[in-house]
Specification:
This protein is of the alpha/beta class and 300 residues long. The chain has a domain of 207 residues: Glycerol-3-phosphate (1)-acyltransferase (3-Layer(aba) Sandwich). Helix 3 links the parallel strand 3 and strand 4. The strands form two sheets. A five-stranded mixed beta sheet has the order 1-7-6-2-5, with helices on both faces. The protein is 42% helix and 10% strand.
Length: 300
Amino acid sequence: MTRAAEPDHADIAPTHTLFGRMFYDTLWVLCRNLGVAVFGIRYRFAEPLPREGGLLVLSSHQSNLDPLLLGLVCERRLSSLARSSLFQWGPFGAIIASLDAIPIDRETSSVAAMKTIIRKLRGGGAVTIFPEGTRTRDGKLGDVQSGFALVAKRAGVPILPVAIVGAWECWPRTRLLPLPGRIRLEFGPVIPAADVAAMDGSTLVALVTQQLTELDAAARRLRDGGAAEPSPRRAAFTAAKSAGRRRAKESSGEETVASGRATTPPPAEPLASAEPPAIPAPLPVPAASIEGLSPPPPPA
């Protein structure tokens, strides 16, 4: 499990009060310890998380735990969407405001909600969106909606896909309270802002759908005790190394055969005297060209 650093405040808006920072850090430590003990949280990042600047996190949606899970494993504070009516509940509204929740009025148009998210992203915040639109009903990855593509392109920010597995078993939408279990989060490579801008909406949706599907499958395999697949860079390095060894062995075998032919003594001629025929000295054997392989042995 990749270790996340202690939460820092490099990307926190200046409006955060000292109480808000202390409350966030305290809650982060308590929830992290509780999450590891009760839910066995495990996670893996394909590459380091961008430390600053706008970032759109696209996550599969399994339960009400998802925003909390993402916040516990990431090295920077994430903002999630919340109904604007929740902010009217006195102390609860103050709590979710201190946790960087973004109020969204569902009674207004979706354009207003998108503008709110885009403004947060352009201000350098990291925002979590669940592109499935709702929590899964059966624990499987649902259809990815296309609304995020417009947000990402308008804001000009990179995208970080992540799949959550196991949260549905711990807290399905039909259960009142969560149960212990095993939860795993698999983070994919960041899609750079330049690539997001270069793609049209349908291509971007297809790419994110493919990545979420692959991350979901990997998270399920690792959660169930399967082996982790090597990264593409490591896989390419391993393949090149194996090919080099194979070529070295083939080259070494050819050199041995050639040396054997060169050092085979010619047929003996009829003896003209009692002296034995002279045997030519063996030719020098070239060393193997790949470091780490010993040269072939000289002919006997």
